[in-house]
Amino acid sequence: MNSIGINQAFFGRTQYLDLLKRRVIDLKEGYRQNIAFLGSCYVGKSTLIHYFLANLDEPDVVPIYLDLENKELPYFFFKFTGTLLYNFSKIKNLPLHDDLNLLIESTKGIIPHTIDVIQKIRTDLTKGKNIDTFSGLLTLPEVFTNETGKSCILIFDEFQNLEEFAIADVFQYLGKKIMTQKRCFYILTSSYPVEAKKILAEKLSLLFGNFEIMMVEAFDLQASQQFIEQSLVDKRIGAQLKSFLTDFTGGHPLYLNLICQEVLNLSAIHVQNEIYMPILSQAVENTIFNRWGVISRHFELIVCDLCTGKGGRIVTEILIALSNGQHKTDELLSSIGVKKTQITQRLNRLLELGVIVKNGTFYYLKDKLFKYWVKYVYQKRLKDVELAPDKQRRQFKDEFNACVEIFKVSSRKDFPARIMELLHCFDNEAFNLNGRKYKLPLFQEIVSLKLKSETGRDLDIIKAKTTGSEWFMVTKKENLGESDINLILAESKRAARKPERCVMISLSTIDENARLKALQERFWIWNENELNTLLTLFDKPHIL
Ligand SMILES: Nc1ncnc2c1ncn2[C@@H]1O[C@H](COP(=O)(O)OP(=O)(O)O)[C@@H](O)[C@H]1O
Ligand SMILES: [Mg+2]
Predict the structure, then answer these.
(1) Which of these CATH numbers, 1.10.10, 3.40.1350, 2.60.40, 3.10.590, describes 415-537?
(2) What is the pLDDT of residues 55-99, one digit of tens each?
(3) Which helix (H) or strand (E) holds 504?
(4) Hey, what's the signal peptide range on this chain (predicted)?
(5) CA distance 497 to 505
(6) N or C, fewer C-beta in 10 Å, the chain?
(7) Which atom of ligand 1 is found nearest the CA of 40?
(8) Given the CA of residue 49, which atom of ligand 1 is nearest to it?
(9) Could you tell me if the CB of 354 is within 6 A of ligand 1?
């Protein structure tokens, strides 16, 4: 299990922490609402829970945290009972032992009934009665809350692993318990959102104990930037490099953390107070290119996991093809050269594992940095015939520098120009953006112009022609208002032919009146979320 070290401060996540605090208050008031935190591996779910628990200061609420990754029933028993008694002892100012027997001794005078039940479960465990042990443990919180009048928070980290206990209908069983234990607040986490949602919908959709699903994502742009600043302590870093790092890591706290740590180490060695390209580039080389670099090892283990076993080679080839920008099944087929069913089977598994995402007919790797590593490190290691590590290293460095340069050039371009670049990529594909389906045509001609509003302000417009029709787009980084919509309406009335489609594109949210008006006119609205999806699909840096 990963946990935050002493020199790594916890950062952000206030929205989830606030939610958890509210749910604890609700629990004390007799209203219990369970939560499931779902999100990719290493995105920060356990860290969030640990931080929440470390700061939980409620004498009437006893938490039990269980990490279920690769754990067996005996562990589950000792951890479950041990944590319960330990946290109860803490609240009661009783001696704090690490040993279950000692904990039992010091608490049995106060909670005799709970201790009796624990002893019985232990007997079941030693006799190998797995089902009785498991059901006994799930009943224990109820016994405890009845005896003490306290509430419990039960946390199953990576809860899908309960399946490994080989107990028939384990989730239905858990569901029944959850329904009746109104004084237990359940928090589940899972790194496999697809599988977890299925379990939650099919087996844990309960009458009085439904789970509120919270998706935990990587840090957003602003949080990433602040996180970098915090991680670099007293070292300065320019806005552009900070933005680059955010985009490069996709805001993943783990990667930001590891790269920033390395940057800090290097800046100490080279006695530098400001971070420039050479240090960043060296830090990336050390962590991502070097075989024993932390991120490199991390990715290697992931690939090893995904690509061992029968048909592993196909998975490797799929990962490589996706990293090289081949997104569609047909493209994958022609580059890998195996049967279609073989590809779709593997793609489906990768989808289930959350390694890739599908949008329309496009498949892409979810983790940006992993994609970078597959493309620039892993692929080369596999395919290079010449054993020349220095050459590979130099090449990696050059490619990384080029990548930073491209980012810098893009980020210097203004907003309309970035949108035009994106429009040039469309080719009659349909995509899902924020739950809506959009068919995006191949544009033959794209021009930008400025319209002057009554107040004399300029509004950036893009006109894009397909064969036989025209699209009008308004691009504005800031808030779009009603006057902007009126302006584009007037422009479309002036046009020889009514535009087929008007799209309002803005990085800020659009004000409510303007939104209603746009919807009334059947305009499309694209905000940050839609834009970022498109930029990811077409391999472009996000607009910061
Ligand atoms: N909020 C955060 N603040 C600082 N670092 C974080 C945060 N969230 C995650 N991390 C970093 O990412 C690593 C992996 O997070 P973890 O909680 O283990 O992921 P998950 O449980 O989702 O698989 C942590 O060990 C830590 O280094
Ligand atoms: Mg975890």
Answers:
(1) 3.40.1350
(2) 998 889 999 999 998 788 889 999 999 999 999 998 888 888 888
(3) strand 501-506
(4) none
(5) 22
(6) N
(7) 22
(8) 17
(9) no
